[in-house]
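FIELD: query
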Amino acid sequence: MSRIAVFLAEGFEEIEALTVVDLCRRAGLEVMMAAVTKEDEDTCIVTGSHGISVKADVALKQVDFDGLHMLVLPGGMPGTRNLEACAPLMEKLDAFYKAGRCIAAICAAPRIFGHRGYLEGRNACAYPGFEKELTGAKVSTNQVEVSDHVTTSRGLGTAIPFALAIVERFCGKDKERELAKSVVYQ
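FIELD: result
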């Protein structure tokens, strides 16, 4: 079974994160929510950009990255800045990218990929206004862009197609269509 981690930093966009968790779990994927807090903290409660607190499954320092198949970064502010400021997470993200392992980001979070050089020559998208930070990308306004092992999406309104693209990658097109139909997504 494929295992995915969704990283929650203070100020994350709640719908972008939880839509991925919900739809991927419905598809039968194992999804872990990991709290990105100060290194010395074990707390797993993270508050999103709209004041909604979520209890993550584990703290970042408890994540077994070797057993994961994809790392997912939700957007939101200041959540995206907080993700990017987390050196241990960025080291793991770099390792995943360099090894050709799957990474995904939505809304403002694709800017992290741009800053780290992951988008050179790739189709990519982000929240309107962040396109200039997608360094080296062929920027699109599509809802979701999948370029090899890198997936990007534009924002809260594209959270369902973003999550469905992840489901399709790991479970196939038939499962993706079945899931979309079951949640009355056109």
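FIELD: remark
The mean pLDDT is 96.
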